[in-house]
Specification:
Number of strands: 2
Oligomer: single chain
Number of helices: 25
Order of helices and strands: HHHHHHHHHHHHHHHHHHHHHHHHHEE
Shape: elongated
Strand content: under 5%
Distance between the termini: 51 Å
Length: 483
């Protein structure tokens, strides 16, 4: 593609006064802005065209590739971009577009490339561009590291181990703090929780960065959601809200991970709105005890007073069961589980055996956030009393709550859990008509969250066919679309 002399001069003039081509492309990440002077000092591998013999040609190639990129003509854009990048990768030393634009060009080429060797080379070039951009524009460290980590986590998974990607995200959170971008929060949360549970991350470090994640979400809530700012959705904070808090909630069952302040901030309002509901009063009181809250704390004392006045159970003749119950209500969850399990195994009364097992299941679900263990004991309850619907109701809730555990919190991978959840609620109605009303309410609430017809079609699936839900669930179900 050739241009006449007048057009070349015009394009160069537009560039030199700082005109930046607009693009209609919507990106999944919002690149952070950098304030202040980001000009490089020592060229090294960061050659600029300024003052060079090839300055005029490089500037022209720069403008031409950006025009082609705007039109998504990736092959043509690559030709011009490669020419200028090879001689002056840092452009004029004040603009780093050529690194991020190079990523866009290679990603565009990947969309249509069939040759596996070329695909591999493009991916390597993309990762290299993030590293080279960081080398030449160190003031943009948070941007380059976050984009690299994002691509390694989502776009090109398996190219780096979790520890490397986690470290990149951690560096970004250290740099940005409560202003960390939304696109960083979910993958960082996933890697943090998994690393802690796999004992690859120490508790103290996980606690520190969990606090930073919570602070970032709180800051975005204050800046955007509380003001109905459209950036809450456009930047992806609504997606973060549907995932990160649920993943971090898993850690409530790790003794000593969260302090009393965390539990008070999260659960005291639930108590205030439900003071007459003894199940909630007992649960909140147990959580405060689990967190080793001081009885003299005003909020803790208020919950305890309500419990004693309205919700403390009457003494029963079965002394061992009183002990199990006291362990539970005092937040001694491990002791409560051991106590109820011992009673269940010793009982010859299947009705009681089922009750004991289901109580254990509820502790694992509501208090310790250990879903697999909760299902195990719900199944034991069902085995002891096959005609009881409550165990199936609970298993359905476990599955319905697993969207953030089995996917990003939204979209197909998270929505498929509704299929197996609804299966369990239908089973509950089947075996026990007394729970039909509860089951129907849950089905009505969650069926709208099933995958859409479009999502099913895009994955070349067909309604009515069988589908195995993975993650910790590992159950086969039937494909259905939300109505």
């Amino acid at each position: 593609m050739k241009t006449n002399h007048f057009l070349s001069i015009l394009m160069l003039a537009l560039f030199t006064i700082g005109c930046t081509p607009k693009t209609g492309e919507k990106t999944t990440v919002e690149e952070p802005k950098v304030e202040g002077n980001i000009a490089i000092v020592d060229e090294g591998n960061c050659v600029k065209w300024t003052g060079k013999s090839f300055e005029s040609q490089a500037m022209e190639d720069h403008v031409l590739y950006r025009q082609e990129l705007e039109q998504k003509n990736y092959t043509s854009a690559y030709t011009y971009w490669r020419k200028v990048f090879d001689v002056a990768p840092a452009a004029d030393g004040r603009r780093d577009y050529q690194y991020t634009d190079g990523v866009k060009i290679y990603k565009g080429l990947l969309e249509t490339e069939k040759d596996e060797a070329k695909k591999e080379s493009y991916i390597k070039e993309i990762i290299s561009l993030y590293d080279r951009g960081l080398e030449c524009f160190p003031a943009k460290e948070s941007m380059y590291k976050s984009l690299k980590a994002y691509d390694l986590f989502y776009t090109f998974p398996g190219r780096a181990d979790d520890e490397e990607v986690y470290q990149l995200f951690k560096d970004v959170v250290d740099l940005k703090g409560k202003d960390s971008p939304a696109y960083v929060i979910n993958p960082f949360t996933s890697l943090l929780v998994n690393g802690l549970l796999d004992e690859k991350i120490q508790m103290a470090e996980a606690q520190r960065y969990t606090g930073k994640i919570i602070d970032a979400i709180a800051e975005a809530t204050k800046k955007y959601k509380a003001k109905n700012d459209p950036k809450w959705k456009s930047a992806g904070w609504d997606v973060v809200e549907g995932y990160a808090p649920a993943r971090l909630e898993q850690l409530e069952g790790m003794e000593g991970f969260y302090d009393c302040t965390y539990f008070k901030n999260k659960y005291f309002s639930e108590y205030e709105g439900n003071k007459s509901d003894c199940d909630i009063v007992r649960s909140v009181r147990g959580k405060f005890n689990w967190a080793k809250c001081s009885p003299s704390d005003p909020q803790v004392a208020q919950v305890n007073a309500t419990y004693v006045a309205n919700c403390k159970p009457k003494v029963i003749n079965d002394e061992p069961i009183m002990l199990c119950r006291d362990h539970l209500e005092n937040g001694n969850y491990s002791q409560a589980i051991s106590c109820y399990e011992e009673k269940a195994e010793a009982s010859t009364d299947n009705e009681k055996k089922a009750q004991y097992y289901l109580t254990i299941a509820k502790i694992y679900y509501g208090e310790l956030k250990k879903f697999s263990s909760a299902r195990k004991y719900a199944r034991l309850a069902s085995k002891a009393k096959p005609s009881w619907g409550d165990p199936y109701i609970l298993i359905g809730k476990l599955y319905a709550s697993s969207g953030p555990l089995c996917g990003p919190g939204t979209g197909f991978d998270s929505q498929v859990v509704t299929w197996v959840a609804i299966d369990k609620w239908n089973k509950a109605k089947q075996v026990d008509s007394s729970v039909a009303s509860t089951a129907n309410k849950l089905i009505s609430r969650y069926k709208k969250y099933m995958p859409t017809k479009g999502d099913i079609f895009l994955r070349t699936l067909k309604e009515g066919d069988t589908y195995k839900v993975g993650c910790w669930i590992q159950e086969t179900t039937r494909i259905r679309a939300a109505k």
